[in-house]
Amino acid sequence: MTTIKIKGMSCQHCVASVTKALEEIPGIENVTVDLDKGEARFTGEADPQEVKETIAAIGFKVID
In the chain, which residue ranges form alpha helices assigned H by DSSP? Predict the structure, then answer.
């Protein structure tokens, strides 16, 4: 299970947007996004740079 911190989420619409975006990346499965913790968790393999770019494209930022 991979966990990433995401900055900028403030509502359930944000959670839905992040979930949908991550699910569209090939190789990522079982996406869960926690608004209170500001993080997303998923299984599978994906290029970390692609994950960051996907999140940035919808207006959020992955925190290293």
Answer: 12-23, 48-57
Instruction: Tell whether pTM > 0.85.
Output: yes
Distance CA 50, CA 36 (A): 24
**What values do phi and psi take at 7, rounded to 5?**
-100, 135
Angle, helices 12-23/48-57, rounded to nearest 10 degrees: 140
User: According to the model, what pLDDT value does residue 53 have?
Assistant: 96
CATH architecture of 2-63: 2-Layer Sandwich (3.30)
Q: What is the mean pLDDT of the chain?
A: 96
